[in-house]
Amino acid sequence: MYLTDAPHLRILRLLRDEGPVSRAELGDRLELSRPRLLAEVERLVAAGLIAEAGMAASRGGRRSTLVELHPGLRFAAVDLGATSIDVEVTNGRLEPLAAYREATDIRSGPRAILHRVNDLLAKAKAEGVYERLDAVGIGVPGPVSFRDGVPVSPPIMPGWDRYPVRELLAREHGCPAVVDNDVNIMAIGERHGGVAHSVDDFLFVKIGTGVGCGIHLAGAVFRGVDGCAGDIGHIQVEPGGPACSCGNTGCLEALFSGAALARDALAAARSGESPALAQRLAAARPARSGSGRAARGGSESGAVVTAKDVADGAAEGDIACIRLIRDGGRRVGGVLATLVSFANPSMIVIGGGLAQLGHVLLAEIRSVVYRRSLPLATGNLPVVLSELGSRAGVTGAAVLASDSAFEQAS
Amino acid sequence: MYLTDAPHLRILRLLRDEGPVSRAELGDRLELSRPRLLAEVERLVAAGLIAEAGMAASRGGRRSTLVELHPGLRFAAVDLGATSIDVEVTNGRLEPLAAYREATDIRSGPRAILHRVNDLLAKAKAEGVYERLDAVGIGVPGPVSFRDGVPVSPPIMPGWDRYPVRELLAREHGCPAVVDNDVNIMAIGERHGGVAHSVDDFLFVKIGTGVGCGIHLAGAVFRGVDGCAGDIGHIQVEPGGPACSCGNTGCLEALFSGAALARDALAAARSGESPALAQRLAAARPARSGSGRAARGGSESGAVVTAKDVADGAAEGDIACIRLIRDGGRRVGGVLATLVSFANPSMIVIGGGLAQLGHVLLAEIRSVVYRRSLPLATGNLPVVLSELGSRAGVTGAAVLASDSAFEQAS
């Protein structure tokens, strides 16, 4: 939060992030004169955004009235992944009042997916979680024109190019809506309630189905000229390496991502190179062969080994599993060393599904980054795991939703 | 320039960048009320920063008075390279009134180098170019703490670490001083008077003795947490490649930079692989053997071939020269493709001594960037040569100097 932001925004964000505060403290904290503060508070009460919340404990003189965000405020937060939908409905303080998660396929297209989103929100409404929404925030797994509220040429989202996501959600729910890239909302979430709390310059690296990077500079998400800043999954790390969905070869994402790890782990299981994975593959076959998940798998037998299997194998000391993780970490680390030299951030956060590979992955990434970047840039550079895990995205979407509702109150 | 900047800054910058303007036009352009504008102008006249400059042409009604920056304003701009000092003294509009260039070695340390800078400025004073300076701006070839005005752990500048450059220059000349990285001032210069005029988000890539990148985001230089953002010369591009001065191997700078090209060109001349370079080497020997330059060269015979020789050889169709340039362009292009995926800029400017390799270099860089980055980020991405060439640095230093003088007027 910056002193240059409008007073109403600073008041609303402080109440969102810290809860009820007395009028007196609010004036002190935000360096607002008493008449200015009272006028702003009165206006925000009239707008239904804040409410009185009893008397504050005495500070010696006259007791001051507490104010808080209106208890009826409701934000919808949506995190669309390549294979999942996460929806939360929160109160003004961004505490989840309802949360839904279901498997999906982003390739079914915007109509079907947004229909599911609206169904989940209708369910929350029917359960009495809200009467009306004050704003909707949504993240999608591809580049977004933040200004226009539409995905732009998203490689893994056929049918979504320039689809009016923001407009349709705003119309459906009669409130402001905001659309951003999935990695950007994860970065925003981690800064709001995770390990990057109050950090102004950091990179959030998501390693999941795809690989991407949320860039937080000078306290705000940096999106680039076309909204595709942070698209690091298609950086070439091995000339002549495996083919990538983007049409090039040797991209980071083709070498290390959820899909790439599943491919390499299956190969290690089948060749017997990894006894731990071979055992899991054998155990998985009868149990999973009839499930929807296995049926969607690409392999002939329908059998799969997962990132979790690799993490468990590594924990048991399986050499091949450890090697798979370290190879991946080395590749991610090489790209991050370049980005550290370029951007000189103050923290790197690793999130997404493969963050469950944990400290073996982290140790390898750190080793490469610390060795390959200049000492000045790494002398005080934490490389850490996401604290919020799979909730980072919805948390950031709720932050964006609340910001857009607050901005409308000007 | 942003509407959120203080009015006096906006007035001074507009007069600097566009010359004399009538009071009436100034008010319109900066969206300032007439009383506010008159008060600011009066204050800046009293402070000796602006002056009246006659009557404007009539706009139909009463004729308005022209104002301009005070004709006595003088800024000193200094660009320290690894092997050269450039000094300019400019008027308020940043037009050079005197310019000096001499060879040096940054490794002679801060006392000797700053002594030379002050000698050159004393010469300008003795020649009547100025009576007193209003600000000094200086760029140095290494990381800088912009806030503290000191170099920080600069790899090629022994003795300069935390040396109080800003403080000493300010005391010596009795005016504000400002210190920045050499690549940052080149980026600022190119934006002020070059090909990046008014472009808000661009990368300025300097390929000279070393390799670095000035990052301009949202209209301002981005310096990173420790001031070393843009230090791209030490990004690894070839594992196991040649040793670099930083202690690692295969850094971009070890493979393609002024020093690396001189090394590779000399090898191509000696092996006879390049007839054009062999011829130049033979011709250079007698002519250069007694010169100071050859005496400083590292090779046993003292013979050198230069980037200019390689450029000329390529222009004559010498295959080895063309290959040297294309190999270098491919390596720079690979790093830039990564940075384009990460930062999604709206322009890339190539400057520094090796920019004289011209369109052969540029074509190779473009080819790699356009092939390796996502279409969304490259659809509208010019990759161009610096317009200001060797004057980019001093131009940017003058811009920084004027900004610091203007800021003091608050």
TrEMBL record, chains A, B:
<dbReference type="Pfam" id="PF00480">
    <property type="entry name" value="ROK"/>
</dbReference>
<dbReference type="InterPro" id="IPR011991">
    <property type="entry name" value="ArsR-like_HTH"/>
</dbReference>
<dbReference type="InterPro" id="IPR036390">
    <property type="entry name" value="WH_DNA-bd_sf"/>
</dbReference>
<protein>
    <submittedName>
        <fullName>ROK family transcriptional regulator</fullName>
    </submittedName>
</protein>
<comment type="similarity">
    <text>Belongs to the ROK (NagC/XylR) family.</text>
</comment>
<dbReference type="InterPro" id="IPR000600">
    <property type="entry name" value="ROK"/>
</dbReference>
<dbReference type="Pfam" id="PF13412">
    <property type="entry name" value="HTH_24"/>
</dbReference>
<dbReference type="InterPro" id="IPR036388">
    <property type="entry name" value="WH-like_DNA-bd_sf"/>
</dbReference>
<dbReference type="InterPro" id="IPR043129">
    <property type="entry name" value="ATPase_NBD"/>
</dbReference>
<dbReference type="InterPro" id="IPR049874">
    <property type="entry name" value="ROK_cs"/>
</dbReference>
